[in-house]
Amino acid sequence: MSSTETSTARTTDTPAVGRDGVRTPEALPGRPGVPFGRTLHAELRKMVDTRAGRWMVIVMAAVAALILVAFLIWGPAEDASFSGLLELSTLPLAMLLPVLGIMAATAEWSQRTGLVTFTLEPHRGRVVLAKVLAALALALVVLVVAVAASALANVAGGTGEWDLSAAAAGGLVLALLIYVLQGVAFGLLFLNTPVAIVSVLVLPTVWSIATTAISSLQDIGRWLNLDLVTQPLFAGEMGGRDWAQLGTALAVWVLLPLAVGTHRVLHREVK
Amino acid sequence: MITVENLTKRYGGFTAVDDISFEVRPGSVVGFLGPNGAGKSTAMRMMTGLTPPTSGRATILGRTYRELHNPGRQVGVMLDASAQHPGRTGREVLLVAAISVGVSRTRVEEVLALVGLTDAEAGRRVRNYSLGMRQRLGIAAALLGEPQVLVLDEPANGLDPQGIHWMRGLLRRFADGGGTVLLSSHLLHEVQIVADDLVMIGRGRIVAMGSKEELLSRGGTTVHSTDDTRLAGLLEAADVPVTRTGSGLVVDAEPGVVGRIAAEERVVLLELRSGGSEGLEEMFLGLTAATSRVGDAA
């Protein structure tokens, strides 16, 4: 405890203002920071307690429902099996869930609420983890709703076939969680909502086009393309090579921005 | 208790906070006074762990901010009342904070009542709040965890005169209960109303520190009478040094001494107050003139 001793020694010659003789209270005992469960609870609530957050969830649900209804009315009847309907209803989710993740990550900086969040929990790494888990949890809730809606549509007007394989179901969950995580990662990386949204939508597409157009990039492209590799994932037809390609694409498009973004949040000055 | 030791922050070649040291004791409302860009906000962000110091350190209740268990229960912080999500209602802002700090819904209603936000106002989105309402909401959030220490950046900014007096009462009661308060301001008159003690900062350095009375009486007493020439002679005869200024006399003595001499000799006084030409106000104005530059951040 040598550091404490030096600080006490220095305190004596620090000029003081205020009253003499008022009892100095002790700091509360306990582990530094806030218990993680409370941080997670607060971050979950913050994702849906603003108009923007709530509407994102409502829009996702509404778009999924509309697509289902439209498909039942005008779509080819033979394709309206459970897995076909589910694939349709999760299509808008793959687009919009990353935005939810982005908004969770950027709000502290764009709305400057970080001044409050990071004074209540100065261990910013825990706040980042809570945001990641909160975004994943919300994505799962939305997915459960989409599954229920697809099942309902199947019973109401579909073929009544329950043709979803376990591999496809697992692939669907994994793919959507990856997209949400990518949103959080890009949000943390740019700490700016519009830039992060545009990047998440445009950069992978630009990369896809570049790697298909330029023949020398085609081989590398297959290993670093999240959209290509999620196709067998959604279909539940992942081979060994697909898993390896998923790993490399995940590392470049999700884990790398997540690591850089987290580093940024930990060291950036909150103003 | 807040202790700041040799705290320094440099941004490239610019030194925002330059080796400041002071201790804020409990039981007092301490004003952190300085012109815009003097380094007040940077210093407060370093105290609360939002900005890493270049060197030196700050502790609250004997620990660095990061080491505090559940900081919201020990330190109430408001660094910018405008930094709230405009889409949340005032009550929702406090409810989210209450989850993190670990206090009940009832406490949220308590602090809302404490800062005088009505039920209807608490249900409105922050987007529609005036600056004064945001300040009250920020103070409510700071008080939520029943802390021992308050760190408030420009809390009186945007409050009307009535609001400033309300804040004085609130902070006075907090300090009388053994709490420690550090609040910043760039307005001398505002801080004179609210604070008991002052730490004055300019260009990143501390230029004066002490109790308000002590600092205000620095530089003697200003006096103005119907016959200043006669009064000056009388004071000089009593061995009290006198300086003539444009609108009266500056005397190097307590107001009581001057008042007694004037009463005995039946001189009619028109003005008698602590503080001479080198008083706090002149010092502050000097600082403001020297440091106010176009484009300076607060």
In short:
With 271 residues, chain A is mainly alpha-helical.
Topology diagram in text:
The complex is a heterodimer of chains A (271) and B (298).
Chain A lengths: L1 H10 L4 E2 L18 H13 L2 H24 L7 H29 L3 H7 L3 H34 L8 H25 L2 H21 L4 H6 L2 H10 L4 H28 L4
Helix pairs in contact in A: 2-6, 3-4, 3-6, 4-6, 4-7, 4-8, 6-7, 7-8, 7-10, 7-11, 10-11
Chain B lengths: L1 E10 L2 E11 L3 E6 L6 H8 L7 E6 L14 E4 L11 H12 L3 H10 L4 H4 L8 H13 L5 E4 L8 H16 L3 E6 L2 H7 L2 E6 L2 E7 H6 L3 E5 L2 H10 L4 E4 L2 E4 L3 H10 L4 E6 L5 H12 L7
Parallel strand pairs in B: 3-7, 3-8, 5-6, 6-7
Antiparallel strand pairs in B: 1-2, 1-4, 8-9, 10-12, 10-13, 11-12
Helix pairs in contact in B: 2-3, 2-5, 3-5
List keywords for this structure.
heterodimer; A: 271 residues; mainly alpha; 11 helices; globular; disordered N terminus; B: 298 residues; alpha/beta; Rossmann fold; 6-stranded mixed β-sheet; 4-stranded antiparallel β-sheet; 27% strand; elongated; disordered C terminus
Describe this structure in words.
The complex is a heterodimer of chains A (271) and B (298). With 271 residues, chain A is mainly α. Chain A has one domain (34-267). Chain A contains eleven helices and one strand; from the N terminus they run αβαααααααααα. Chain A has helices at residues 2-11, 36-48, 51-74, 82-110, 114-120, 124-157, 166-190, 193-213, 218-223, 226-235, 240-267; one strand spanning 16-17. The longest helix of chain A is centred in the middle third of the chain and has 34 residues, at 124-157. Chain A is globular. Chain B has 298 residues and is an alpha/beta fold. Chain B folds into two domains: 2-211, P-loop containing nucleotide triphosphate hydrolases (Rossmann fold), CATH 3.40.50; 219-278, Alpha-Beta Plaits (2-Layer Sandwich), CATH 3.30.70. Helices cover 36% and strands 27% of the residues of chain B. Chain B is built from eleven helices and 13 strands. In chain B, α2 (90-101) crosses α3 (105-114), α2 (90-101) runs parallel beside α5 and α3 (105-114) packs across α5. The chains are: A mainly alpha (271), B alpha/beta (298). Chains A and B meet through α1, β1, α2 and α5 of A and β1, β2, β4, α2 and β8 of B. β1 (16-17) of chain A pairs parallel with β2 (14-24) of chain B, so a sheet runs across the interface.
